[in-house]
């Protein structure tokens, strides 16, 4: 056997854990769909046919597909049950739309009437919501009472360890009971603990003893990455026990940007700066962009025509203002806007628009205040250069200026720029005449990338309507 073969044979592989509750939830959802159809066939016996059964199977397949796109089977235990129910309802609605599309394209028809479909549409989510609420209540009840719970300890009384204990306590996905911290350091070097959290119960040698005696079932090692030698020693000693041991990497010392782990030929790697729209998430976001941009263009087609005529009649120059800005991965894109100024600056240094700016055209102030000047960017969305929601694109000169003044500034370009964004709905739009204002905007951009979800995009779009109706700092 060659050295390469030996190396590959000894290479460790990292596998993702499949939690049992996810499989159970999938089973409950399947039961809800089939029960809804069963309810209809009992009410309308003539619908009990092979075609109806096929429709039910296709509906379940569609539901499973859409559920993956919308993240229905994520851990909802620390969130309000209404959010989980809303996601389930949206998943079911999209599934029926997909079912109708498949039926129309395949010309496969059933005896299902509009009335029976309506009953199925209502019965299924009612049953699914009820089962989910019962399931969540049961899990929380068993977790709170420690039924079937395993004891766990944390090596390292530090901020990371405290955050880990809080996270496990908020979620009923982990049926674990916290016994305490183990730390060799002096008390003055340890983190301050909340009053309701068990304190340090001993040092690492005592943990080794407790693990060997079976008093601790699960151990999380939350030491800093620089303590590699110490971690290796602890793991070597814990290998003589039957406890399950996990290493909690102290990645929070870095500015994580939608971090995720993967493997490269069995070697685990963790992304630090990454685009969140990979795989089906990217496809789904692109679908939403095309949908909302198309609908918006249908609604604003006539107003855009009126604005174009007004721009042409009130000032000299082109109707559309084109400017080079940074797009995805910092690549240049051409952003389109209705011209609101008497000059079209595309120089190395561009002055930001200010209140009562002398460069504004007679209707320029109104266009900027109502954000009507941004409407041509809907075509940027259709071409794929921009998104409906994302960090607003800045002038190239401002990018070059602030990338040297604000740490992580260029990370905002890990996603497509948007017509609107989290910073805009939080009031950080318009002129950034101080470094602090720009820093606040960048913080929002980073938060958007880290926490992106379909729900966040929809909420930002809804909040944008409110912001446009009550404009602030727009000039």
Structurally, the number of domains stands at 3
Order of helices and strands: HHHHHEHEEHEHEEEHEEHHEHEHHH
Say how many strands there are: 11
Shape: flat
Strand order of the largest sheet: 3-2-1-4-5
Radius of gyration: 28 Å
> What is the overall pLDDT average?
80
Helical segment count: 15
* Through-space gap between termini: 72 Å
Largest sheet geometry: 5 strands, parallel
Q: Proportion of β residues? A: 5-15%
Residues in helix, %: 40-55%
Q: Low-confidence runs (pLDDT<50, min 5 residues)?
A: 1-11
Structural class: alpha/beta
What brief labels describe this structure?
single chain, 475 residues, alpha/beta, 3 domains, 5-stranded parallel β-sheet, two-stranded antiparallel sheet, 49% helix, flat, disordered N terminus
In short:
With 475 residues, the chain is α/β, with parallel strands linked by helices.
Describe the protein.
Strand 8 and strand 9 (332-338) form a beta hairpin. The protein has helices at residues 3-10, 20-43, 50-70, 81-106, 114-144, 159-170, 204-212, 228-238, 280-314, 364-370, 377-383, 396-402, 422-425, 435-451, 454-469, and strands spanning 150-155, 176-182, 200-202, 218-221, 244-247, 261-264, 267-270, 320-326, 332-338, 387-389, 418-420. The protein has 15 helices and eleven strands. With 475 residues, the chain is of the alpha/beta class. The model is unreliable at 1-11 (pLDDT under 50). The chain folds into three domains: 20-144, no CATH class; 150-253, 3-Layer(aba) Sandwich (Rossmann fold), CATH 3.40.50.720; 280-469, no CATH class. It has a five-stranded parallel beta sheet with strand order 3-2-1-4-5, sandwiched between helices. The chain has a two-stranded antiparallel sheet with strand order 6-7. The chain has a two-stranded antiparallel ribbon with strand order 8-9.
